[in-house]
Amino acid sequence: DRAHMSSPSLEEGVAAALAGGCTIVQLREKDASSLDFYNMALRIKKIADSYNVPLIINDRVDIALAVDAAGVHLGRSDMPVAVARRLLGESRIIGASAASPALAAEAASHGADYIGAGAVFATGTKADARPLAHATLAEVIQAAGIPVVAIGGISHSNAPLLGGIPIAGIAAASAILGAADIEAAARDLRTIFAQGRPGAVPAHSAGRGSNGSHVHNSGSEAGGGERAHSAGRGSSDGHALSAKREAGGGHGLGAGAGRVIKAVIFDLDGTLIDSMGVWERIDAEFLAKRGIAVPDGYVDAIATLGAREAAEYTIARFGLPDSADELVSEWNRMAADEYAHKVKLKPYAKEYLAKLRRGGIKLGVATCLHTELRLLVMENNGISKCFDAICNSDDVAAGKDSPDIFLRAAELLETPPENCLVFEDLPRALRSAKRAGMMAYGVLDASSAGQWEELRRVADGTIRDFRDAPTF
After folding, report:
1. What letter does residue 59 receive in the DSSP assignment?
2. What is the C-alpha separation between 300 and 277, in angstroms, rounded?
3. Please, are residues 182 and 176 in contact by the beta-carbon 8 Å criterion?
4. Which of 47, 94, 161, 218 is most deeply packed, by most CB within 10 A?
5. CB neighbours of 81 closer than 8 A, spacing ≥ 6?
6. Beta-carbon neighbour count of residue 84 at 10 Å?
7. Do residues 6 and 13 lie in contact, with contact meaning Cβ atoms separated by under 8 Å?
8. How far is CA 458 from CA 113, 244, 256, 368, 441, in A?
9. What's the rounded Cα separation, in Å, for the pair 141 and 144?
């Protein structure tokens, strides 16, 4: 919002915010002409694309389509969500403003992917907005059943007050763009959110020691080297994005029937392997060695921190004599043991891989799991030689918010994207696979069970285990 920024241009402000760790940009241009809005959106999208971050257009479905933005955010006086969904299709993001549980549930039922709830504090960007009671915000989250982002008047001083509420993210304008040092403001606000973040949405966000993912200017999983307790060091899945209606319940090819599938690409953590609970076990064992029971709030406090940040927090909280490097090394050794000996394949996964290979289907892996852990878990489960290609997020310098990892996997498999099927366990990665032009199937995982309905909307089909997976 150009009315609330310190930088000479909005482009410079957005670039600085992204450098500081924001993960979504929402462009608000309330007073610009259609042509000016269009041209501004093109320039901002170019910057967002360079960071592999989605651009959301406020209000204007036509502008979003014109610049090929990731989606739109709609207020109560804007186009109805259901109509926008018909116009935008199933692969784009639709956010909706809602200040009551009933409105949130209604928006979700009509195809919204996330709710912007607020204003949670008094705000200068909407003078007529009355602050939303935090008890009501909690009720909105419960009623919505999709991620809820807190918005309105959020600053570095009041953001910690949201720490006990299971929001999926925070949206800020002046607190970031109006700061003297925009990059530092974004980084600091992200840290505040991560430290106070409740445990409702940590699963698969990016993993302690992860190789990729993103941060957020309009909220959501913080990524880029973060610690995911259910997915293990290196997972990057998390963030709910689009609202694809489910086509088929897992049998057949649903909306993609008629496509010729020549290659299947698998995610690892939460999809092909069952890594649920790895970090919970590591934390419990790590603290038990020191005579400490895992206290309330500890897991939530480090759920989105990078490995070193988590180590520093742990040392400070428990007064440990260890250095941060020593803690990280110990965690790495414990994770290696888990992946080498305890983490197993999902039910019927190995049989499904064998069936695909017998049918002449090429097999690939697209993962953000650390290479060492990937090698250990694949060897542990006897699938090291099953795959024709393996692509890691390091290979494309991007997490699964971007389709690049899937496009690279298809390239390695020497298969056009339209002839590829991807299996993933969380909506953000499914959306990226679909942006790559591929079919995408959702896989139920215990850590993401709360996103099952969203998975069904995003994916071309869904499975609860690989007995239900399509054959070709």
Report:
1. S
2. 14
3. yes
4. 94
5. 74, 94, 96, 107, 110, 111, 112
6. 21
7. yes
8. 9, 4, 13, 21, 9
9. 5
Q: What is the pLDDT of residue 262?
A: 95
> CA torsion sign, 417 to 420 to 421 to 424?
negative
State the catalytic residues.
28, 97, 126
Coil/strand/helix, residue 218? strand
Q: How far is CA 425 from CA 131, 134, 150, 422, in A?
A: 36, 31, 25, 10
Question: Of how many residues is the chain composed?
Answer: 472
Contact 25, 55 (CB under 8 A): yes
Cite the DSSP H helix spans in 32-133. Answer: 34-50, 61-66, 81-88, 101-109
Label the pairing between strands 71-74 and 55-58. parallel
Per-residue pLDDT at 257: 46
Q: Where are the beta strands (DSSP E) in 280-438?
A: 344-345, 362-367, 389-392, 420-424
The residue to which tokens 């260890």 are assigned? 322
> What pLDDT shows up at residue 124?
55
pLDDT along the chain (472 residues), means of 10: 83 93 90 92 94 92 96 93 93 94 94 93 60 87 92 89 87 92 92 64 35 31 32 30 30 48 95 87 93 86 68 91 91 91 94 94 92 91 94 80 90 96 91 92 81 84 91 81
Q: For residue 178, what pLDDT is reported?
A: 92
pTM (2 d.p.): 0.49
CA–CA separation, 304 vs 225, rounded Å? 9
Q: From CA 384, how far away is CA 376, in angstroms rounded?
A: 9
Q: Edge to edge, what strands does the sheet with 55-58 contain?
A: 25-27, 55-58, 71-74, 93-97, 114-118, 148-151, 169-171
Parallel/antiparallel/unpaired status of strands 344-345 and 273-274: antiparallel
Q: What is the pLDDT of residue 303?
A: 59
**DSSP letter for each residue of 351-382:** HHHHHHHHTT-EEEEEE-S-HHHHHHHHHHTT
What is the pLDDT at residue 171? 94
Structure tokens given for 86: 């018909």
Cα–Cα distances in angstroms (integers) from residue 386 to residues 158, 269, 346, 415, 458, in the given order: 51, 17, 15, 17, 28
What DSSP designation does 346 have? Answer: P
- C-alpha distances (whole Å) from 175 to each of 23, 125, 187 are 15, 11, 11
Compute the chain's Rg from CA coordinates: 21
Beta bridge partners of 94: 72
List beta partners, residue 171. Answer: 151, 218
